[in-house]
Structure formats: structure tokens, C-alpha cells
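hiii, so i know i said id send this last week but things got crazy w the move. better late than never?? heres the sequnce for the chain we talked about at the cafe, plus the structure i predicted for it. fair warning i was half asleep when i ran it
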Amino acid sequence: MVVKHNITAMNSNRMFNMTNKSQAKSTEKLSSGYKINRAADDAAGLSISEKMRRQIRGLTQASANAADGISCVQTAEGALNEVHDMLQRMNELAVKGANGTMTTTDRSYVQMEVRQLMSEIDRIQSTTTFNEQNLLDGTFRGIGLQVGAESGQHIAITIGNMCTNDLIASALSKGICYQTNDGTPLCNNEDRKPTGNERPDGYYYQAPGDGVSTHAKIGYVNLNTIGQWKEAGHSHLLSAYDLTVFHSFSYEAITDENVKNRLTTDYTSLWGATGGTEEALSDKAPDIRYFQALNVFAKSAIEDVSRTRSDLGAIQNRLEHTISNLDNIVENTTSAESAIRDTDIATEMVKYANNNILAQAGQSMLSQANQGNQSALALLQ
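okay and structure toks below
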């Protein structure tokens, strides 16, 4: 029996401290809800869960980005819906103005409405914005929506220029012919094919308009494939000159380089034309032929706007699927991260209750061990 060292008390105290530490960790896990509160709790688990957290937060933001993209697309598509309505009205007015029962004065009234519609299309084009970015002026090209947690995971959105000038340029680049009974120098029929400008592939070039050869006015058609050339009456190749009673046209203002290239390919060598030409708004009274030109322009513009709206609708559907996929990944990754990081309350509560009992038992045993030395005192008395 010794009194210098109380080994029993030391053992009881050590075990009591271990139980207290274990109980403190259980209390921390239960109060925080996390199984890993510091790297020492689970070093490997911490690294894995932090990697998952990065992915989860990135994908959550990517889902929000895609939702912003849908809002942007809907803004542009809503504006183009109004443009479509105005083009449909323009087509209606073109058919109305081509009616032979109308007088020149009547057509001038129709002309004024068409001009206002074209001006409104240009106003919508210049003022439709999303987050202070213009959507319809041709600058919204290759805009990437970050729809993933990693770099480079994006969906690109491109919206062309929806101004009247570019819609006219697009119509000109298609080489559209239309039938009239107007035998002006602008027309060519099967009996009056121009010579000297034919190509081996069966195409020929002509310069409709006021006789001045410019890039904007020159187009081409294939006489062998266009049926109108074999019909009675006169066929005209749509030119900027035909539409100047409704809207001015500027070659330099065209923003679509592909359209510019279609308007200028091989034209310079054939006609000695120069770029940068501009067709000013004409004050002449429109006759039937100008409304017939407006008719084919409206048809072309409706096709162009329809194509753009279809592209935007397809992008919106794609983004909706993207959001669904991102949300699904976030949900499942969060579940995996939770399994690593979160406290299992039931299991941890069992440990806490067990440690609580052990702590009370340890405290009692420590008290008993300290009283054991009292027996040595009885020997000394």
C-alpha cells in the first residue's frame, strides 16, 4: 500500500478525461449538425466533401445563369413577335397597295403607314435590351452562357441584326424575282435576256435600278430554274432601288458579313462597282410595282425573323433541359456530400448517451479511488 502514487486514481482520471473528450466531440457534432468540423475529424472526408461543395455551388450558379439566359432569350423573342406582327401588316398593305382600283393618293396613305412600320421596327431593334446589352442590333453574337461548374462549359447565343436595313440586304442577297406588268428598263423576260454577262454555270448578272451599277443594286438569277421568266408579263429582280419609297438603304450599314459577301461577290469585276453606296429615301409616289416589290420583301423578312425566332425558341428549350440536368446533378451531389459531412443524429446520440453514462461512472470511480488512500491513514494511527 502506497500513498505517494495513486495509480487507481490516475487511471480513473485518464479514462474520465477520454470520456469527456469523446462527449465533447459528440456535443459539437450534434450542435453543429456536421460530422466533420475540422480536418482532424476526417482528413480524407474533408478533402472529398470540399471538392463536392465546389461543384455544388458552381452548378447552382450555373443553373441561375441558364435561367438568366432564358429571360434574355424571351426578351428578344417577345420583341421579334412584335416585329413579326408589323411585317404581317406590311405584307397586308403591300397586297392592298398593288390593287389596281386604288388611286395614287390612296397608295400614298398606305406608303405612310409602311414607312411608320419600318421606322418602328428600327426603334424596337435599337431599344430592346437585357441587362443594358442590346439584343437585336447585331452585337449580341457568340455570347456565352456559363452553364457548368468548369471553365469552357457554356452555350453560345447569337442574334442577328433585325433592323430594316439588314432585312432589306438579306432580301437582296437572295436574288428574288417578282412578276409585274410594268415594262420598265428594270424588267427582263425570256425575249429580252441581257447578253455579255453570262457565266458558264447558267447565271447572269444584271443591274436593276436607275442604271447606276452599285453593289447594293446588283443581283443574279438562274434563267434555267426560275419559272417566272417563262411566264407572261415582266420579271424584276428585287433591288434596293425598288424599296426606297418606303425606306432608305445603306450598303455600309449592313452588319452581316455573309450577306455583304453575297451582294458583292464578282460584282466589282463585272460592273466596276464600288462599295459604300446608299439609296436615299425617295419622295416619289409609289406605283403598283413598288408595292409588288414590298410584297416579296415582306415575305423574305418574315422568313428571316421566323428563322431567328425558331433559333431562340430552340435555345430556350435547350436551356430548360440544361437547368433540369443541373438541378438533378446538384441534388445527387449534395446527397453524396451529406453522407460524408453531415452528422447521423441517431448514431451520434447513442454515442453521447453512452459517453454520458461513462462520464458519470468515471467520476464516481475517481472519487472512490481518491478515498482508497484513507486506509493507509488507519495504519499510521
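btw The longest helix spans residues 43-97. thought thatd interest u
miss u guys!!
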